[in-house]
């Protein structure tokens, strides 16, 4: 039974779903980095929100970890390249809390416009400072969005209801989508110059870090009000403090901070600052949504191989996964075969699918070929890290699909490009799900690729099979099965032997010295 750790506060629905699906679950909240590193090795899955930081160091101890599920959107607390390199799938729940977060941004905008927190504190302190809290209307004001994705577009929709003019800077927003959303697309500078209210809805990346910089703030309208319910780090906090103190920025409402938990922050106490402790996603509705989604997605992956909302591998639905399973097994074996036989100076690899395989999602088949192929170079390779390892090695990966059926109802061909030209192997499925090799470097041969095997290339001449059988028999190696193939028109023959044990070096040397032998190699599947 797979085992999952929930390490951040999550709606109880998550644990309920894990248990109901047959996944063992522990909930341990508030672990230090050291404590997490100490226990992570026991778990196949880790479910987090934004508090747990999954660093390369912690991943080093995560010897069994297969999947990290983020019950929420932002994944900047997870080192995705390190997780990918380790073969760990990272998934999030990209829509479960978007409405809630957009509503928080709108609430922050109202709070800024009418200074609600200060007015509340003053009133409850018995001051009745009616003339002190003069507000502004939202109607007909310009709202500038930095980022018009899921949350930004919901904010735009709500702002339209408030009769605001919405402009946006988002390099990935198409004109058509902008028209559909009723948003005017502008440059970043124009956005700073025109916005009465400015709200941030981008992830924190190298491009967006500090996007509201000191220089940017200098370009904003005097009296601008700024809302950040996306990520700390998007705004230069020191520059914002100065702009609030000088009165250039009339108010800022921050849900997120560069350092979290923000128990101390230079901005605290600055006039015009409103803050909440990363509450954007904190409604009961959103938390139920993301808890259900993350648990279902992780259980699908751990139990059936289904992949949804993964950030480092292609999606694979729970319905697709069982159909793809035998094709992926075949693909992995073929990848492994070429990896073991032709791994020197491989520059590129092409994966060709034909017939029934061509009707399926090709990405997982490619991933499985690469996992088999890269397994010849590196331990602990899987579908997640194989494409990264292949890229690191500079391997050119090509995918080809032929809808037509050939001799076989389905065929997967894996070809490697080397200095000596192209070499390929091909396989099919016998029945519904039995992987079978049908071609090896241009020679027709039918073989199961299983367990320990011996690959022998020899001159196609009488008496060879007897000689190799006698040699292996004398060395105590039992042959389970043998498969023969030869080039049409004569020349070399190929022998694939299934053996009951790994063939050691001295025996290999004896086989190598047999008359007519050109190549001998052990294989393992
Ligand atoms: N405060 C919270 O509790 C809370 C809750 C949910 C999400 N978030 C954060 O909100 C952010 C946005 O979430 P989303 O669901 O809308 O994501 P999304 O991916 O749907 O949208 C992000 C948008 O940012 C745009 N973008 C990327 N780089 C940009 C750049 N350099 N300049 C301008 N725009 C750029 C993208 O094109 C995209 O349209 C995420 O960082 C997420 O972590 C915070
Ligand atoms: O990116 C998100 O989904 C939000 O920042 C929510 O974070 P939380 O789950 O820690 O509240």
Automatic annotation (TrEMBL):
Residues 323-440 form the D-3-phosphoglycerate dehydrogenase ASB domain. One of its GO terms (molecular function) is NAD binding. The keyword Amino-acid biosynthesis applies. Residues 454-515 form the ACT domain. Catalyzes the reversible oxidation of 3-phospho-D-glycerate to 3-phosphonooxypyruvate, the first step of the phosphorylated L-serine biosynthesis pathway. Also catalyzes the reversible oxidation of 2-hydroxyglutarate to 2-oxoglutarate. Belongs to the D-isomer specific 2-hydroxyacid dehydrogenase family. This is D-3-phosphoglycerate dehydrogenase. It comes from Parasphingopyxis lamellibrachiae. The lineage of its organism: Bacteria, Pseudomonadati, Pseudomonadota, Alphaproteobacteria, Sphingomonadales.
